[in-house]
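To close the section, here is one more complete example, presented without commentary so you can practise reading it yourself. The ligand is copper (II) ion.
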Amino acid sequence: MLKIASLVILHVFGCYSVRRLKEAYWEPISPQIIISEINKLDNVVLGPDDFSLSSVPSPRNAICHMQPDPTSSEKVSGFVAFKQREPNQRLGSCLSLHGFDTKASKSKNRKHGFHIHEYGDVSGGCGSTGGHFNPTGATHGGPGDKERHFGDLGNLIHDDDGNVFQSFVDGLISLYGIHSIIGRALVVHELEDDLGRPGDPGSLTTGNAGARLACCVIGFTTEEMVDNSC
Ligand SMILES: [Cu+2]
Ligand SMILES: [Zn+2]
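Output:
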């Protein structure tokens, strides 16, 4: 009898604790509120860090080691490095990629769509990384647009030798906060991202960027790694 009573008490307390946690940390945030915040601020940190990130000091450094998708004939590889000094400062990035097929490339203007995808899961190649990272429920756009997915980083442009050396700054994505890009995937596409301009259904979800050539998972690294890479 005592055993049953203690089990009931444990169950009730357990459910209550889980509910409290859910209330505290998993309240859905209205996309309208987030968009208006984005318009006001350069860099939006939506809520505190996840517990697993809260002990990581500033500045924060991250890296992503690009690997070709097993199904791709273009063997794109290299790295993308990120640095952010403080939560309210813009995220800087430098990247070095090679292996773009300069002859067989289907991309006009040598442009290749470049996005952060939702899942850091490459178990099924780049196909298992989900869609564009889009925590606010926005439509697809370009990196300079107010209406865009968090993951919309525009296009990379490869040179005559199939290489890309580029750096960029982004005021929306962050290595801090509940919408941090840590643990998510970067994906390089076969075709140019149309940045949502034509307005057809494919354009407003993926930018019609075609197949996934290569991908990687973004993880924290040392300051030396990023400073020596960029
Ligand atoms: Cu993509
Ligand atoms: Zn997108």
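Once you have examined the tokens, check your reading against these statements. The beta strands are 60-68, 77-84, 91-98, 111-117, 123-126, 152-157, 164-170, 185-189, 212-217, 219-220. The two ends are 67 Å apart (CA to CA).
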